[in-house]
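Take the subject:
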Amino acid sequence: MVHFFKQINNSIMLGALTSLGRSAAFSTGRSAFVANGARVNAVRSIGSTMVMNAEEGQAEVVLVGCGAPNRGMGWYHAVQMIDKKCPSASLDYVIEPWFMGAGGEGPGGADFKVWQGEAEGAGVKFATSLADLPEPSAPRLALISGRTADNPRLLTESIANGCSCIYLEKPGAPTVAELEAMATEAEAAGVEVLMGYNKNVCKYVRKTREFAETVPGSKVTFVSNNAYENTAESLGECFERNAEGMLKNMAIHELALLASFYDVNVDNIESVTADKEFSSMQTLPGPSGNDFTDFDKIKFTIKTKTGTEVSVQADRCGGTDSYAYVTDAEGNEIFRYYMPDEEDKAHVKELEAKYPTAMPYFFTQDPDYITVKERVAKHTVDGAPADGVATIGIAVDTLKVAEYLTPLLQEQLK
């Protein structure tokens, strides 16, 4: 375990955040950091290691849960920040208890050690616990990208260790009750929680919504694809690793769009109809030998009590592209926009060449991951609105919808 030398006392930060308005709090906190001598030439000595520190105008980012290189979402977040794709975010710390502990000698452990050495060469410090962190030397942002089941505990630890804002990966928690408790805890501490629902800021979502608004009586369908092999072994591994289920995992981004932009919540749903011809539900053994039941593909339409009709389609084995399309009142498709579009495909090819063994969906969503992180990091520093970024309140509504829909759709597909 790594223990950092805590040489700075900046407990003023959380007090300032609680007692002042948000913008004033961030300003006061930043002044306190500077006045307290916490940053000298943007470099701090911790133990015997010189670590690059967040500079003026940057959040001090703590990545909680890195995962395996080329596979973990946390790893890709780290790569983007190390490559300085997010100007307001300085990746100063990575908390990775699995690969720095029991998982270090197992699958992926050797690859992680190699990547850890490269990241440390770029000034990133690694530890196994948030409790090992020194006091913040800049507004501290926790980016929690670990196992969903661990998120309630990790949020508590992030608050206790000086994080003034939290970026929480979807779906946030295993259950609605846990996510609501997390929201209450964060609010009581004066800590804002924003969600990594990157599709809320995607170009294809914006373009499709804008077009649909010009056509009375039109309907939007959001389509999400992953590129798993269509085999029992591949899908069984997927079902076990994402045991919360497709609607709380892969399709949760689309449900967040519905909650954010289409007034979809459990109190406003009039009807849910599965497309039985497209949809498929299977029970398959995972690597543990236990059976898991989930959708390998699903399509459904929601009608709300306020008159909105919107559809979602998700396919674990459908490829790498996500897209949305618009149909007119007669059901004819009149518009479709892909992610990536032609403009972005060249960028995807560059990333494929740079990271040939990484998960393909990282590349198609690369610009959107950057956008969300940058907006959240800037918000952490100066309190500016994080436009389009979902709050934990939206996440609660989204998770409620996922829990509501799952048994209804399962029953329709029996």
Remarks:
- The domain at 12-195 is CATH 3.40.50.720 (Rossmann fold).
- Residues 1-50 have pLDDT under 50 and may be disordered.
- The first helix runs from residue 12 to 19.
